[in-house]
Each structure stands twice: as C-alpha cells, then as structure tokens.
Amino acid sequence: MTAMLIPESQIWMIVVGFIVAFILAFGIGANDVANSFGTSVGSKVLTLREACILATICELCGAILLGAKVSNTIRKGIVDTDWFMKIDNGASMLMTGQVAALGGT
C-alpha cells in the first residue's frame, strides 16, 4: 500500500479541522463531565479533584477503546468515502465538507 501525499493546497483544511475538532471535543467533554459528576461532587461523595481524575480516566479509555469504531461508523455508515474518490477533486470536496460541518456546529 502506498502512502498518499496531501497536496499543499489542502494542508490548511487539515490544520483548521484539527483545531476546531480539538475545541469542540474540549467543550463537549467539559459539558459531559459536569453532567456526569456534578451530583457526586455536589453531594460531597467525590471531591472535585477525584471527579476530575476519574473523568480523565473514563474519557481516555473511551477514546482509546471505542474511537476506531466511531471512525468506522462515520466512514462507512454515514459518509461513503469511496464515492468521493471516484470523482475529480473528490478528496478536496470531502475535506471541505468536513471542515464546514465542524465549523457549523
């Protein structure tokens, strides 16, 4: 299998997509942690430090153990990437759409 080089005209989309995805993941994770551990911290079952440590472990394990399955679902079950590879500039169109979807959320 040969490595596919990314054209320089598309590098900006990867950088912008990574930055936006990181910011969204940070915000979504913070919201989910507050929902999950808010009552435990509020009732003093866990300290804030314990809740942060437990949340970090759970988020990390979820990303490592289930991240590939989520990617496969998006790649095969939601977006048909093979269709984009059959047309001219398909990869560029796919990346532009993904960045637009990230920016629109």
From TrEMBL:
It is a multi-pass membrane protein. GO terms for cellular component: membrane. GO terms for molecular function: phosphate transmembrane transporter activity. Its main location: membrane. GO terms for biological process: phosphate ion transmembrane transport. The chain crosses the membrane at residues 12-28, 48-68. Keywords: Membrane, Phosphate transport, Transmembrane, Transmembrane helix, Transport. It is found in: Membrane. The keyword Repeat does not apply. It comes from the Eukaryota. Belongs to the inorganic phosphate transporter (PiT) (TC 2.A.20) family. This is Sodium-dependent phosphate transporter 1-B. It comes from Fasciola gigantica (Giant liver fluke).
